[in-house]
Design a protein that fits this description.
single chain, mainly alpha, globular, two-stranded antiparallel sheet, 6 helices
Length: about 160
């Protein structure tokens, strides 16, 4: 029953509203993918412009770090896909290469999880891939070491759907 003073909505307006909501949802889901594929100038903490490309020539952003890692992984025979890496990065760090977890059991034991894929130092050290920086905060080194670990433990980063 309609409340007093409420106009009756036609079937057509409900369909139009449903289509608009669905379209908005699709756009929201696509935004991270669109943003991840465009390069942008970054600024360092002291205000100077950071490089817009990595030394290997990839964009210095999440998309570039994943693509550079995938190239290294292909050379080293480490399995994984763009989507598997991206999904895990967004869950673990929201794409922040400087993320650090200071509250979980690893942190309580003195080894906090670090970087894009939240790797602890012993795991990073054990699964570090030569040719990448020896720094768990380096995006490419972090991704590549984490994928190397995931390959050894789960077969691929693509098989990881939760904390690992």
């Amino acid at each position: 029953m309609l409340a007093a003073g409420q106009p009756r909505r036609s079937r057509m307006s409900r369909i139009a509203r449903t289509v608009a909501v669905a379209g908005t949802g699709a756009a929201v889901l696509a935004l991270p993918l669109i943003g991840a594929t465009t390069a942008s100038a970054a600024t360092t903490t002291n205000g100077t412009a950071a490089a817009t490309t990595t030394l290997a020539g990839y964009p210095n952003n999440l998309d570039g770090w994943i693509r550079e890692s995938l190239a290294i992984m292909a050379e080293e025979g480490i399995p994984g896909s763009y989507n598997g890496i991206y999904r895990n990065i967004i869950r673990e760090s929201s794409g922040n290469p400087n993320a650090i977890n200071l509250w979980d059991s690893n942190a309580a034991a003195g080894t906090p999880s670090k970087g894009l894929l939240q790797v602890i130092d012993p795991t990073f050290n054990a699964y570090h891939v030569p040719g990448t920086a020896y720094d768990p905060y380096d995006p490419v080194a972090n991704i590549t070491a984490a994928c190397n670990y995931a390959a050894a433990r789960y077969g691929s980063i693509d098989n990881v759907f939760g904390a690992y």
